[in-house]
Amino acid sequence: MSGQDHDQQPDASSTPDASSTPEAPGTPGQDSLQDPPASRGQLKGQRAAAARDLKRQAALEAHQRGVVRRAPMTAGLAGAGVVVLVAAAVTAGTLVPPATPEVDGRAAPAALNAVPVRSVCAGPPRLPAGAEEGTDTQFSPVSTSAVSRVTSVLLSDLAGRFPGSSISTLQSAENGNSGEGAEPVDLTESQPEEVQQGDPATAGADGVPVRESAVDHVQSPGGEAGEATAVTVEPIGGQAMPSDAVSLYSATDGDLAGTDASSCLAPAHEHWLTGMTTTVGSTSILVLSNPSASASTVDLTLYGADGPVEAPGTAGIVLAPGQTRSIVLGGMAPDEEHLAVHVRAQGGAVGATAQQHRLFGITPGGVEIIQPTSNPSLRAVMPGLVVPNRAVTEEITGQDGYEQAGPALSLAAPTSAATAEITVSGPDGPVELPEGGLVDIGAGSTVRFPLDGLDHGVYTVTVSADAPVAASARGLSGQAGEPIDFSSVSAVDPLGLERLVARPENTTANLVLHSADGGAVEITPVSEDGSLGESRVQELGPESTRALSFADLAGGEGAVPSGALLETVEGQVYAAVDVRGEQGISAYPVVPQQQQVSGVPVRVGY
């Protein structure tokens, strides 16, 4: 049930009068014949309301009859004298019927304990089973320099108390594991139950509010097998504390050379992923993870350039608690340049990502982890697109076999045909696209829109369509004749009131902000030593994109912050992080903070 009140009292035209006989359900009264509803939907709603009132009235009358019927039986058992008194009371007309009980049918919140917030971190990219090692490192699919780590950042409450947090490894079904996962490793100590579920703190023991940060780095969190992991953060004072986690992968050699940074995202019952490629030389692996304590059954729907893709094995994929499954998408939808996947889960909520890498002949073509994009809608906003200058892009795409390697936008129209208008915004607002800004998408199909003509910079891509679309963008780095790397940029929803963002360790990263109509956000750097730096307010002009270096957020003093606390001051602000390294580039979305629900609506009535 939603938080909206769906039990408002019907108006006079649909509520039977208490002093008159209610009409039969589905039969309009005299007033309704003189002033008919504007639509069949309204008439149907009025009939349903009348039927509910009749049912409720009948139940109340039955209850009243039962009470009256029990009264003389009780009196008879009490003796003849009482019977005479009751009879006299009836003769005198003074017997008062019992009061009709009132039934409140409105939805009311049922208080529940606050629950831990859980997020799924993608494991490092892996080759599908059966890949063989080469004898020369340069041509080996296995990297000798690959490193992976997870960075977790969280804030205390105003009393300086940190929520308990932990990280656990999810077991792969391909390795014969039946689930349950591994024992979690504590990052911060768990708090007592009364602290987790008690009242929120407003200050420390000395009466002064205090807020601190805790930063943890976990090396090779998924073990030697490179499994996905789950980070769990407990509540404090019945509320979810600001927290974030990000995984990082980098390698300088092997087929999986490149850089990827991925946000650890909340599991859900529905995900959309776009921009996968299954053409020759490309490998896309869909990874499904179930961090919950309940089994999950997953169904997949695939969309390609020519419409929905029918493939066996897309329905009834079972995930045990704590289990992951990897699916090679090329086996389901081969030779697709821009594939989209809709993931739907029943039972436990799941995490979903797509690991993707390419080879251009024997030259590595980058590695990326594609994260879910926002659900199909009439508008999609993708901040954090990084592209080289147009001359470099032309040199790269001019090579044999690299024609589709330039920056691009992937679009899917799952329900009906759509015409989409594409806008690309930089620091000074929208920029002109050489290919124009309009593209048509067939119903149930996907399309690629090139973004080759942009100058070097960081951009936000916005799609406005006349039918729901799902979208993601792809950035590019590198030089012609050398290995290149891609970044996957997901569409995001606007930031909420407060959002904590983690920065991957030992990386150069930018916080990318965008506002369509103008806005402002307050940014507070979060340091490795646990302190929060001086806040600043960043204003954003209409249709502008600002890339702020994490190194600059500290004001030139101290080490580079491990994260930043964002608080929206004005307007709607969209955010992402772009990451750059010697091995390539990456980007990850900053989605709204998970909301901690303290109760669910429960309706009691007839």
Any key phrases for this structure?
5-stranded mixed sheet; 606 residues; 7 helices; DUF5719; transmembrane; 13% helix
Descriptive overview:
The protein is mainly beta and 606 residues long. It has 7 helices and 36 strands. Strands 20, 21, 22, 23, 24, 25, 26 and 27 form an 8-stranded antiparallel β-sheet that branches. Strands 5-16-12-18-19 form a 5-stranded mixed β-sheet. Strands 11, 13, 14, 15 and 17 form a 5-stranded antiparallel β-sheet that branches. A hairpin with a 2-residue loop joins strand 13 and strand 14. Helix 2 packs across helix 3.
Counting DSSP H or I runs of 4 or more residues, the number of helices is: 7
User: Any low-confidence stretches, pLDDT <50, length ≥5?
Assistant: 1-42, 66-96, 132-137, 596-603
- How is the biggest beta sheet arranged? 8 strands, antiparallel
Percent in strands: 35-45%
The beta-strand count equals 36
This entry's quaternary arrangement is single chain
Classify the helix fraction into a percent range.
10-25%
Using only CA atoms, what is the Rg? 30 Å
Q: Kindly state the mean pLDDT as a whole number?
A: 82
- End-to-end distance: 17 Å
Quickly give the structural class. Answer: mainly beta
The rough form would be described as globular
